[in-house]
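Forum: Protein Structure Q&A
Topic: Joint prediction for protein chains with partners

I've read a bunch of threads here and the consensus seems to be that you should model interacting components together rather than docking separate models afterwards. I'd like to see that in practice. Below is the full input, 1485 residues plus whatever partners are listed. Could one of the regulars post the assembled result?
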Amino acid sequence: MMMYPLNSPDQGIVQTVRSMLQELLGKKLADAVLVLASNPWSDVPMPTLFTDPDRMEGVDPLAPVAPVSSARQASALTRSPSGKTVVLVLRPCEIRALIELVKLNQCSLENAIIISMDCLGRMENKIFSDEAKTGPGITERFLSSPELQGKITTTCSTCNDFLPENADITLCTLGAEPGHMGFEALTDKGKALLESLGFKKGDDLPKRKQDIAALADKRSLSKKELFDATALQMSTIDGFQTFIGRCLNCYNCRTACPVCYCKECVFLTDVFAHPPELLLERATRRGAVKMPTDTSMFHLTRLSHIGHACVGCGQCSSVCPSDIQVADMFRTVSEKTQAFFNYTPGRDVTEPIPQLVVRNGKRGD
Amino acid sequence: MNIHTVIAGAGISGIRAAFDLAELGHRVVLLDKAPSSGGILSQLDHQFPDNHCGMCTLLPMIDRDKGPQFCLRKGIFHDHVTFIPSAEIVSVKGPAGQLSVVVEKQHTGIDPLKCMACGSCESVCPVSVPDGFNEGYSTRKAVFLPVPHQIPNHRIIDFSVCTRCGECVKACPVSAINLDGEARKLEFNPVNAVILATGSGQYDPAQSDLYGFGVLPNVVTSKGLERIMSSSGPSKGQLFRPSDNKPIKRMAFLQCVGSRNLMENADHCSSVCCMFAVKEAVMACEKSHDDLTVSIFYMDMRTFGRDFQRYKDQAETSHGLRFIRCRVHSVEPCENTDGMKISYVNDKGMYMEETVDLVVLSTGKKTGLTHPDFYQNEGVFALSDTFDFKDIGESLVAADVAAGKAMALGGPPHTPEQRIFDTQRLSKKAMPLLVLCQCGNNLSNDLDLDLIESHLSAMPGAPQILKLEQACGAAGFESIGTALTSSQANRVVIAACNPFLFDHKIKALARDAQLPDGFFKTLDMRSHVTGKTKNEQTQSLLSQIKSTVNSLNLTLPVYREKRTVTPSALVVGGGPAGLSAAFCLASAGIDVDLLDKESQLGGNGIHFSPGPEKNSLDKLLSSVTNHPKIRVHPATCLTRHQGLAGVFTATITTPNAVEQKIPHGAAIVATGGGQAQTLDYCASQHNGILSVFDLAKGLGDKTLNPLDFSKVVMIQCAGTREEPRNYCSRICCTKALLNAIAIKEANPSASIHIFYRDMMSYGESEKIYTRARQAGILFIPFDLHKKPQVAVNNQTIHVTGFDPVLQEDVQLAPDLLVLSTGIVPTDNQIISKIFHINTTQDGFLKEANSKWRPVDSGREGIFVCGLARAPLGFQEAMDEGISAAMRALRILGRPFLETPQVTARVRHSLCSRCQACIPECPYQARYLDEENGKIMVDSVSCQGCGACASLCPNSSIMMGQFEEKGIMDSIEFFLNEACP
Amino acid sequence: MSEYKPKIVALVCNWCTYTAADLAGTSRLSYPAEIRMIRLMCTGMIDQKYILKAFLDGADGVFIGGCHPGDCHYIDGNIKAEKRIGGTRNLLSQFGFEPDRLALQWIGASEGPEFQHNMTAFVERITALGPSQVADRMIL
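Posted by a regular:
Agreed with the consensus. Here's the joint model:
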């Protein structure tokens, strides 16, 4: 483990990271940075692509909010080779999604440097915006306030995958004294970058292991509770139907999902465009049919398409206009799908997608 | 209609030859003496080395629409092939190219034009005789279905057992039976060629009273066992003992029954029985969940195919098969049980007895078969070794060679049918016509057709309905044609039975109506309509009709890519296989670029000593080098190969390092192989130790003198037939025998010992083995765990080997030690990468399927043959070259390649280019067009399996008549059925 | 209440199981009326949506019949299908569908009796399980 401590309590963590990213662009160590940043027109920070260090005053990578998964934006940036080096500042779940997208040839990590963080979770937009209005420095307040940390989404509070994998650099907040933190270099690329920015190798954060274990325990416990309850509900058709009862078929969940990668969802194609006769026949069979139809079909199909790849980011719940906790269902069911296929999404770009296991090798041997 | 070739024998070789010519655009008549097609394979469900079926793999892959896509065991359906069962050629007259062929078709008692295959005749027939299809393990009537699953499924009458009681005539509802008919003569004239693929027969073990066949019920032939175990056999796939239907616990295979037996005048090996026995043993073990002990009594286990040794080893380890080297001298019944006592002398010279429940005789080929008198006529080609048993792959190669000869007699060039489509009619919205066959009013009792009509009129895209008494007759088709002319219908569903049968009639209808064939669909009422009550059956048919009409309504005209074929070929490798491939292609008028990395053509053949092989190679070499259609590129390497079947481009580097691009339509890879090196047996430590190949060369070019050797030892399988090179190289044993005989004949006083594991003198080479033994050459078998030991001390070679007969070591100090080191491929590492084709674990180029596609690589348009593919003899390599050329001609012989109906297409507007479909395609038909950023389908390679479509999450792949929407709708129709 | 008759959708491959079904038909081996058969070129063509759709539309059972491993006309379509169907079965089982309602069986072209036997056994199995919980509900 290579820890590069940061000791600038006066400057504040947000400013320290901001300066680091500015310097990175200034020294031309990268051509662009994709990072969460506030702007005058939005009450929540949005993923923003910077090329000019002087425009980076709003950069706020640790802000406890993610109005959209940055994995999709990262994928848009790296879909085809641009020849430019891009720094992607992503949450752990966003990196996992990105790894899945790499496997699906939706992006490439070749010219990317990934900076991530110990993820303490994110709030829903509305909650974040309300909290931000109560005073300055929401991000720093959040990092030091257990009370604010209690306001993160259900998904985040039941997530025990809060440490990044496959990043080059992690911003370590766990185990640090308030106002202090460290950069951890996870790869040689990360190490070189930190060293060319003048960081010096230092001691490990003393309480880090302990803090991580404590958070993992707490999260795992609540996750188990949630998953058990959800699984019980899903285990009957009535439970499942009640769960999705308010669904409008708006497909927001699939739009927000970072691993639902289709250019256009099959539910928007002719395959599900039914003529009136068929709808009437369908209604005739059972006497009644909810409109729009194919709601169960939609959720089950999505589960069967990308259940193995669900990274548990919770965006689907956040965007649901009907307040369906889509992520609870997805995460609960997907966990079993992933166990069935012995597959961990986002762990390794070389891990084959389970639905595609029959490959050339099978035929060639 | 001009018939190009008449093929006698509709076994697997005959079918292959027929498809070869049919794919070249020729019309073929295929006939068989038997009332069914498929030959011996119709009785065998599974084939080694993979114990799979896969006969359908033989179906044409280019221009698939020329025949319906169905299991080949059901029958032969191809627009250009007419199959005539129960028929024989009686005379062939005239010059090649203009033959007059007279065929006699047996009277089978039932008029196929009238028969509805209802089976009433069979149910009333009072006769019961043993059923030949099940080798006599079940019975049949005098009127019967010769192969239960075959189409046409009209029964035939076996007049040799028919009592002419007339019951069947009375029972037939359509008066299709005539007991007094006579054989008919059919004449075909002019015909370019005749191919005789009449095949071999099986030795009848009842001839010999040694093993009790025909007397003891539990002594069966290997084919009999195959039927006993078959799902379509007497016990429906259960392995039971014939005498009492009890499970079998101990089973013995006796090899070489009717083969390798001088007393029976059978000085030959039947080549396939060893593997056949191993396969059956494995299947029997699997059927009985390994609660079975199988012993195989053999003389030599002839596992001479490339992958057979591993198959045998695997069978031995995973099923515990016992292999016992001996000839069993008798089989006797046990008292009071149905068991049998087998007695034999084992390899230690001890007398042994064993009791078994079932004895399987591995019966070899029948001898004494002769060709008909017109066999020598010009234009008549018999398959080489047609009376021998051959592995399926080899049979197909032999068929290709014969088809090649027939093709060489000319015939019209391939002119694909030019179809005109009524674009106006097609562009209108789907208007279906439903033809409802009432099967001679038989169906109206079972179905409520009015109800069906009224329901259908309510469905979206409701069909116009045409009710016919009998759709399958000529009158029926005429009415459909009239209905199509008088209406605007642009889709047709025909609900009748046996859609296999009238595929060609439907195509004719489509042609006349100027609609694509794919817009006509048949609905098999017999297998699709279920239910017992009238209501159930009506409901079932209704939903089937709705589903078929709907999916047809959703079927859109396929964009048919017409890919113009580059009419030239690339042949890589100028050894025997490559040379014969090049010559065959050039003779068919194709330009050939023949590459060899050496400066001299001939491959391993340049070392041949004078003799028939050298003569034949020299002749081929001069034909190739002088052929105006062949450009030879000596000392040239292939560096790159790109493109698709029909339109490839190769990049070659000439000796003076110039890069050159060669466009071509198909490529044949024949890069060859050479002798393997070994470190075993002190191979490089003494100049008196040679390889079998070097000895042959030395004896041939007289650099070695037999008189110099007084004591010779030969060791077979040196460094081979064990891991890591666990395969038989096929030719070393025969080479060693010929070397030994040559030395012995020149120097009778020389002593020659041959240490061997199994002498692989398969087929007629057995005679060489016999000759060697008669010449006094000593043969000592050895096992892998008791290999001979070789040491070199003071310039002397010492060989110590264990003699199982003497049960002691023999010590020899030969002045010549010859090692049979086997064959390894030469350049496959590089060549497989250049062509993106696969290799076996031993580095040979891997064919798509060792049985059914023996010279196809996994990629369409690229073919593999010769030593690069597998160890082979000279003639075998030449034949494979021709086979590869014939496969290439399927592409090169036509002006363009067209997209078949059921082919994957990409909707680029939906495709996210995740490329998951690319490795999923079993035919490497999908690729990323990097320039345009699109996923493309090579519509020629695509076979329409739909693996890509089911994988694609957003249905951006369309599958012709199997669109997702149609299938989803069908599911819904079925489940909506019978709703209140 | 009238006798319960399950609704069963069978998705069968053209080369093997369909041929076996046809053989069963021509051999007059009658199989249960409850089965509605859809012929596909290959089991590898089976989209998971087909299975989901069938169950959500009230099928009591879904039977998939393909070639024995190694016999696939398209080399390994059946192996692909096996993998995918395994995933679908796992998914459905989490939503309260008994995994036994989805069957995948290999039936070779000459196995007419096997076809009949498998179909009959499947119908019996489904009859024993009773109607799918979806059957009498309005499904969203």
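Confidence is low (pLDDT under 50) at residues 359-365 of chain A.
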